[in-house]
Amino acid sequence: MEAALDGTDDIGEGEMRAYEVAIGSVLVCRVAGELFAVENACSHADTPLSDGTLEGYLVTCPLHFAQFDVRDGLHQCAPAFTGIRSFAISQSGVLSVAENVPRPGPPEGPPLTR
Ligand code: FES
Fold first, then answer.
1. Of 68, 26, 25, 21, which is closest to residue 43 (Cα–Cα)?
2. For residue 49, which atom of ligand 1 is closest to its CA?
3. Dihedral pair phi/psi, residue 80, rounded to 5°
4. Hey, where are the domains in the chain?
5. 110 alpha carbon to ligand 1 midpoint, in Å?
6. How far is the CA of 45 from the centre of ligand 1 (A)?
7. pTM of this prediction?
8. What's residue 114's pLDDT?
């Protein structure tokens, strides 16, 4: 699936915006001048991450504060146990979503804690 998203030029540095596309809600973020796209649902309890905060490359869920890296969707701390899907997006705002891409699993090593 490919979709040209309107208005990504207006997303300022450190800002994020949710877009509804065929696969559901996608969160587009601009960090260090680059656009990144991830699914707009926390892997802990599906809360929209667009209601959370973005600091650097980390988006924080508003409900229980799990954090995800918007570059690759990997989760950084509990209570999430898996990451969120990340998607390719061109710098002109064209989103590309491959079908059936799973959420990234837990990292190897000791369990994440806050
Ligand atoms: S719903 Fe996001 S951390 Fe719980």
1. 68
2. 2
3. -75, 145
4. 2-96
5. 20
6. 5
7. 0.91
8. 56
Give which of 103, 93, 34, 100 is closest to 73, Cα–Cα.
Answer: 103
Q: Using the mean position of ligand 1's atoms as its centre, give its distance from the Cα of residue 24 in Å.
A: 18
- Please state, for a pLDDT cut of 90, what percent of the chain lies above it: 80
Confidence of residue 108 (pLDDT cuts 50, 70, 90): low
CA 66 to ligand 1: nearest atom: 3
CA angle 74, 37, 44 (to 5 degrees): 45
> Which ligand 1 atom is the nearest neighbour of the CA of 61?
2
pLDDT classification of 74: cutoffs 50, 70, 90: very high
Q: What is the pLDDT of residue 109?
A: 65
CATH class of the domain at 2-96: mainly beta
- The rounded mean pLDDT for the chain is 92
Tokens 């491959």 label which residue? 98
Distance CA 62, CA 68 (A): 12
Give just the sign of the alpha carbon dihedral 94, 98, 102, 106: negative
Residue of 58, 98, 56 lying closest to 80 (CA atoms): 58
